[in-house]
Each structure stands twice: as C-alpha cells, then as structure tokens.
Amino acid sequence: MSRLDNKVALVTGSSRGIGAAIARLFAENGAKVAVHGRDVTALSAVRETIERSRGRAIQVLADMTKFDEIEAMRHQIERELGPVEILVANAGGSYSPPGPLEATTEEGWHASVEGNLTATFLTIKSILPGMKERKAGNIITISSSAGRRPHPRSPIPYAAAKAGIEILTQDLAAQVGPYGNPRELHRPGNDSHGPQQGAHPRNATTGPDRCTPDSTTRNARGYCTRGSLFASDEARWITGIVLDVAGGATMV
Ligand SMILES: NC(=O)c1ccc[n+]([C@@H]2O[C@H](COP(=O)([O-])OP(=O)(O)OC[C@H]3O[C@@H](n4cnc5c(N)ncnc54)[C@H](OP(=O)(O)O)[C@@H]3O)[C@@H](O)[C@H]2O)c1
Q1: Phi and psi, residue 116, nearest 5°
Q2: Which atom of ligand 1 lies closest to the CA of 17?
Q3: CB 217 within 8 A of CB 18
Q4: Which of 125-134, 177-186, 192-201, 237-246 shows the lowest mean pLDDT across its residues?
Q5: I want to staple 88 with a disulfide (CB 3.0 to 4.6 A). Which of 11, 37, 111, 197 is the partner?
Q6: Using CA positions, which residue lies closest to atom 15 of ligand 1?
C-alpha cells in the first residue's frame, strides 16, 4: 500500500513547475490525479508522463479566477475519478514586477491578487463543501517566502496576496478542523493543554516527522516530498501550519 493509494487528488497549476512535480509524486504514491492548468499541450505531457509510469491521471482545464469554470472542472473530476479527497491549491505566480509601490499598476495588483488569493479562495470554495459533507479531506495551499518576509524589492501585490493565503489557510483550518480531525491530541507533554491547544498549529508540528527549513530544500522535490505526507491520512493532526521551504532564509 502506498501512502495515497486510490485517493483522488486535484493539483491546480500542475501543467508545469512545482504543481507538475507534485502531481507526478502523488501519482507515484498511488493517487488518482487531476492534472490542472490552461495549456492543453503542457497538461497532456504531464498526464502522459504519469500514465507511462503506470499512474492514473486525467487532465482538466479551468481559469482559477472564474468560479463557474472551477465548478465545471470539479464536476468533471467527480464524474471521471470521484470526489476530490486531496486538494493542492498551487496555481498562481507573480504577475507584477518588483518595484516601488507607487510604480505598481492597478492591473498588476489585481492580476496578482486575483491569480493567487482569489484563485485559492474560489478553489477551496468549490471543493470544501463535499469534503465537509464526507467529513474527510486534505487541503494544501501554496504561499511564498515573499508573503513571509518583507523586502524593499518585493513584488508587493504578490507578497500581499500570498500573506492573505496564509491567514485564509489558518482561518480555514480553525473553521473546518472539527469536521475531520480528532478533537484531542494525546501525546506526552500535550495532555494538559486540552483540545484547543492540541489543535494549535505549532503543537501539531512537534512530532518526529517535523519539517524545518534545515530538513528540506527550496525546490520542487522539497515541496513534493513533504506534500505527499501532508496529503495523507498520517498528517491529519498537522493542520493550519505554514511551512517554510526556503533553505533557512525564512524562519518565522
Ligand atoms: N517557483 C518558485 O520558486 C516559487 C516560490 C514560492 C512560491 N511559489 C508558488 O508556487 C506555485 C507554483 O509556482 P511555479 O513556479 O511552479 O509556477 P509556474 O511554473 O509558473 O506554473 C504555474 C501554474 O499555475 C497555473 N496557473 C496560473 N494561473 C492560473 C489561472 N488563473 N488559472 C489556471 N491555472 C493557472 C499555470 O497553468 P497554465 O500555464 O497551464 O496556464 C501553471 O500550471 C505558485 O503559487 C507560486 O506562487 C513558487
């Protein structure tokens, strides 16, 4: 049995880059993967790579800033693979060059906020109700060190959007935890804290499989290796955390 055997996973923005690496790794671990993007040629290439390795994948299209397209994509996945059990809301990027705030265009601002924060919100808005109904599911969002660490040359719209994704993720974990997670963490040293403390993100990262910036690297493999753990049932107590994969550059 692999860690993700027969789980249905949607990895948004998996036509290339980090998302494609996550999709391939999930498939290697037994998941049935919906490979998502807008570039049909790139999507086909990722799907075919997975199928050549005897993995199961379908390709789906949607602009993640458009809720009706996301809903249509979800229905397609449900028809062809089943309900989404693992969501990696990875689609995004920086759509405005770094520079002084006053030189940032309104278009650049909207593109980065829509393409990252709004896209993540709309994706979760579509997938979450089914997970709540089934009382099971796993959602991983993708931020950036830009959203964690201020820098004078930071692309501000992108940094602000990614910081927004972090609090969205943590508020979401606080909202939906009771639907899927055990209510109390029984582990030496934590028993006295009670249910609320036990569910706190920082406590949830103190196990033997703890990820630190020293134990992983800022590359797709690092995201993916940990991603397969976080997407699995083994990680159901790891909730609402922000994990820096930045080689020690960001340690908040
Ligand atoms: N690369 C890094 O060093 C780094 C560092 C920190 C955080 N990140 C974050 O990690 C994630 C992936 O980054 P990456 O470097 O792998 O990006 P990438 O190579 O540019 O790929 C971006 C992916 O997202 C999809 N996408 C973007 N906007 C979309 C939209 N509106 N609708 C549908 N699909 C959309 C693209 O699909 P199509 O091309 O098919 O349209 C593509 O599959 C992003 O959220 C990024 O902000 C990256």
Answers
A1: -115, -65
A2: 16
A3: no
A4: 192-201
A5: 11
A6: 17
